[in-house]
Amino acid sequence: MSIIMDRSALGRYADCPHQASLCIKHNIPLNDRLPVGGVLGHDVIDKAFKKHCIDQPDGGKVYELDKVAQTVVDELPKTRPDLSKDVVEGCKYAGDVIAGLANIPIVGVEMQTEATITPEEFKEKLGFITDQTVTITQCFDLVQYGTNSLHYRDWKTGYKKRTRADAEEEFQSACGAWLLMRNYDGVKTTADGQILPKIDTIHVWYHELRWRTTAYARFDRSSEDPAQSHLTTFKLLEYRILSAAKLWLEGSDEAWPEPKKCGFCSAVTKCKLADWTIKEVADNPSKYVDCYVAIKAKSTAMYKALKSFHQGYGRIEGSEVAFDWKPSPKYIPKIMPKVNKGPVDEDIDSFFK
């Protein structure tokens, strides 16, 4: 029996095994950091594609992209009365992107793709002994054909803004490119027996709706690492995916703190490093740095929670200080003395910004 490893869950092990184990232990959902508007935006786009899909006699599908685009723009504002302007504007941007894709053949929408890793493959490629068979899966928002290439598009509705380097580094990019290359190898077939063409290039596009920007990454199957000429892009991607699966199977609980990772971690408030008792730096400098990164991210998450609570209920009294806002053009609540409304200590206060 194969163990199913979804890309999102597997990505947690690739980023930080401790995060992954905490999310399993505390049942933290994969999309718990996704804004409500983002969930609705994905849903509207998905329904628009389904609404304007025409089934063909040969089993294929044709999408009326101009109608899909207009439906996305028209329907999102109707979903909730409290959607922010940037969410609505983001879906207008999505509509513009979709309308501009009209002449590019579509392979699939919300396309579920998978690959199975056998115990023999784990042993051959990683030297890892296991009796488990693993199936790695990923759902692609939109996949289109290019010239000996596939274009994989993903609608991003969160606050993260990516550079090209970020897009190339993301586990989602690596896993998606590897899955598409592995399936489109000129040998594997579709359910109805058609051979899938060999695809050598994967273009990854992250359409960041909240920012109205696009981040791009490209993966070429046979490109070689300049430092290690025997390692092609495909092999490097494969090692990355299999190594993450190995961590999952081993039940790894290692913590790998980095500012970017901790800043977007769903489990940072439960992190073992964020609960570390303060000690002298000289006692364990390496761990001190790791803990500082995790504690700072935890503090940021706590500040955001306090700010959200303050917006709904106002001033929050602590034992010696209060969390409140001194009216000004920008809404930035701070730690303040209970007696007056001035900020306490700028050095301490700036830590929570």
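Second entry:
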Amino acid sequence: MKRIDKLILQSFFGPFFLTFLVVTFIFLMIHLLKYFKDLIGKDLGWDVWAQLLGYFSVFMIPTAMPLAVLLATLMTFGNLGEHFELTAIKSLGISLVRSMIPILAVVVCLTLAAFAVNNFLVPKAALEAYSLLWDVRQKKPALDMADGAFYNGLPDVSIKIEHKIQGTNRFKGIIIYDHRAKFGNKDVTIADSGRMYTILNNSYLKMELFNGSNYQEGTSNEIGRSSSETIQKTRFDKSEIVFDLSSFSIKRTDKKFFQSNRIMRNMSELNLDMDSTRTYANLEKLNAFYSHKTFFSYFKPAIPETKEVLAYKAERDSLQARKNKQMLLPTDGIPSSPPETSAQPSALLPETPTVAAILPEWKKKADSIFQTPYTEAEVSRALGNARMIKSQLLNNNSSIKNFQNEYIVYDIQWHRILSNSLACLCMFLIGAPLGAIIRKGGLGAPVLISILFFIIYYVLNILGEKKVKDEDMGIFLGVWGSNIVLFLIGTLFLYQAKRDVKLFDRDFYAVMLDRVKNWMARNG
């Protein structure tokens, strides 16, 4: 490896790792802000926070990698151009394209790494992160009792504390309504003071109450006395009450309930999902095509079958025939044709009337039936059948539409895994020549330009995905459109950089304006 290649690579690695960490952290914070209200106040341990941050950091890599490549290449070639190192490299007979090859090789490796992360690590990290986030959402807020207000966080218990001494576990004035017996407000405890703390690894809350009374209201069951409500009052100098805090701990849900989401599937699993949804949609179409035989009793409409349905029907019939063939028993000893039976003499059979003899009578009965006016019951029954058929067809169409939408979602994710990885190459193709053109390093102009192109990339991704879901655009153009646009822009910048065109210099646009004025004057 030449020294110039080492120089360029050393100039690239530092900005890349720095920008990658910074961009990942920024995207991580932006993503966590969406769930801020679900995380704060839950008294989560450091282990839970570490898991969430770690999983979501991996989840942010597909978004952060292209932007980090763009920003790092801009800063690298901008610094080389600002310090006239690119000029020195060109003076040695090394072209701009040749000077880009070392970083291009690194970006190709980064693209392969991004694909591996997108296809293998991100689905697993998303499954772990969102399943944990779901469990955190179901967790009750931390035990926090405010002065002068009833706290209902504990199951079947209402607690009111008049004043809590700050910095201690002591309080003054407490009222406890115990509803655990399911008899209403018939168990009340009042105390002047007390203290509370958790025991057994924060599994239970223990309250020690001082100078109070317990009031219990119940029904008298003594013999010889009428059933009436009684009140029992118990005075105490000290009393202890223990409450279960199991509802405040995180209960992990089985991850199988979250695995069907598209972001938690790799490409092979997405292929299986698409095949399943396509099969279900074709099955619904096949049922719709052949259901008219049962829907319409007298009128048999001719509904054409599509090629897709015919192909699915042929495949299904062949699979069923193969299965039936495997299930057949051996035919040894079984006669190939049923045994012959003695025919009954034709003389003993009753004479069957010919069609020509009974046809006039049938026609007369049919004419009399169709000429008879419809009764109200027949009309109501016909309307009921029509409504039922309409409802079944609407449900069938809705099921087909849902399967088609689900197929599109899986197909988008399949292409997104590839397009997000190849976006690194597109960003490099923009950043390297653009840095050589602007010749500005640091965190000023490169950051602004990187943000601008990333916004273009992000907006095109969102619009393309929306168009695909609305079936207004094909899957290839909708998902790969942003990469195609960036690739064309990068090709234009590379062409301009090879010609040493100063796109961001004022003199360049002044010269272009003079040329336009001269052309208009000559042709005016």
